[in-house]
Amino acid sequence: MVLRNFDAPRHRNAHGGPVIRLEGVRKSYPTADGAVLAISDATFAVQDREFISILGPSGCGKSTLMMIIAGLRPVSSGAVFIDETPVTAPQTDVGIVFQSDVLLDWRNALDNVLLQATIRKLPIENYRDKALQLLHSVGLQGFEQRYPYELSGGMRQRVSICRALVHDPRILLMDEPFGALDALTREQMQEDLQALWMSERKTVVFITHSIPEAVFLSDRVVVMTHRPGQVDAIVPVDLPRPRDEDTMTSREFAHHVREIRRMFRLKKGGGHD
Questions:
Q1: Which of 48, 156, 229, 233 is most buried when burial is the number of CB atoms within 10 A of its CB?
Q2: Nearest Cα to 6, choosing from 22, 19, 17?
Q3: What's the pLDDT tens digit per position in 182-201?
Q4: Structure pTM?
Q5: Are 225 and 37 in contact (CB under 8 A)?
């Protein structure tokens, strides 16, 4: 079943409303040939501790939406709210993970995680135990002193995720963090992220162009159209957690994947996983 009520009544925050709310968000960019509309009238909400994936074809504005939610890019019109407060500047209670791990080569894994505290001018010693705990939780115990060149791609991205979480943000924004990984590593990272989310219970907005990945990870999947990106539908994923490789071979999982894939085919949006 596809829900087109974009404010699903799941978890509620202390203010009684969604944690993140987008209302009629539009974003255009100036070019020599005139303005190019990247996002058109994006409207949806994310509830407290919910895992939402934004799924769509390349160029539909997924990453731009994430940057707007983080307060790193302004809207052209419309509005974004966090706890009903308009987002007009970079947000402090947000962690961001990009497709590239962007680790500093001269800092070991632990110091790369603690870089978040350094940038925010937080007392490093107060966050060292949290950083170690996060590294251990993603299977990097014993690698704390290793430098990026000594780590695999999956290990580097785990460090990046830990760095985004070390200051204990309420919201985690992830922009295709597993897109550059091989298929086997990607599947393992999906399971690791699910376990971390079930432990930390952050509100997550996850950008992806992979339909199976979105279904595996999400409570709901926001399906976007081709550029200019609009919210075409929101699909609830009612699969029990924790999800594993058996989930991915189940009839229910296949049903969700087929349903979303059919949406893109009807819109002539082929080319997805």
A1: 229
A2: 22
A3: 999 999 999 999 999 999 99
A4: 0.89
A5: no
